[in-house]
Amino acid sequence: MKFGKVDHPENIDFTIPPDHPDTPVVLSNSKTGTETKVYVGCAKWNRQDLKNFYPRGTKDELEYYSSQFNCIELNATFYRIFPAEQYEKWRDKTPDGFKFFPKMTNEVSHLRRMNDKVYEIADRYLEVTSLLGDKLGTIFLQMHNNFGPKNWDRVVRFVEYWPKEFPLAMEFRHTDWFNDDKVAQELYHLLEENNISNVLVDTAGRRDLMHMRLTTNEAFIRYVGANHKSDYPRLDDWIERLNSWKAMGLENIHFFVHQNLELESPLLSAYFIEQLNAKLNCNLHIPKTTLPPQKGLFD
């Protein structure tokens, strides 16, 4: 994942900003008293990307991956809408409780940029994606870097069209969505009113995306390691913040681990899950890796 990559991550201040003032309000108003649900996973399951993870002789990568993680950020669906039978195969070969968090097709976000032609595409996408059944988690829609607030009307129409039975998270990358306070407040209000989650992206070169503004009782976090020794302490900081949000009423944690070069994502994930279990009293399975946490390529 090259988005937000920098040549010298040692020069970046990775401090997590303070919460947006409205985040505690959203969590307090939306809590139901149910137990916090936590899903942690990688972006892909293919062997080429996930080094130091698959045992020798592994025949089915998804089957093994889903025995170690409880979810996947399904990036493959960004590039094309697969045949219906493919979603059924993914559903059937994964265990009960496993969740897919699929990325909306780029036909909607990048190629047609939410114009009037995207609704038929979105319907077609949802028709097959819904075949994941109870293993379908939140769908997320990532807009292009140059999709700015001048397209506000398109965003409003799409949000109003979106079928509310499908949980949705949206990721906006143009800086003007966050630099202009009036624009930001209008966006946050729209998402909050329509129960759409506001994606948080923690990457080195775009610290402005750490707006720390939740719009639902879901923390949908895309963490991008810099292939640097700072990757682990950054995860420690997230443990503390998530624990704070849990105390405020957070009930849904969806955390996906990337790297600029996917070399240690399983190791980072295993480390994060172990710390999360200890701090938040979770009971997630700690993925097996061929190297112990914190003993990877950066030492």
Automatic annotation (TrEMBL):
InterPro entries linked: DUF72, UPF0759_sf
Coiled coil: none
Biased composition range(s): Basic and acidic residues: 1-11
Ranges for region Disordered: 1-29
Transmembrane stretches, start-end: none
Short name of any one Pfam family annotated for the protein: DUF72
Domain of life: Bacteria
Gene3D superfamilies assigned: Protein of unknown function UPF0759
SUPFAM superfamilies membership: TM1631-like (SSF117396)
Full protein name: DUF72 domain-containing protein
Annotated source species: Flagellimonas chongwuensis
Lineage per the UniProt record: Bacteria, Pseudomonadati, Bacteroidota, Flavobacteriia, Flavobacteriales
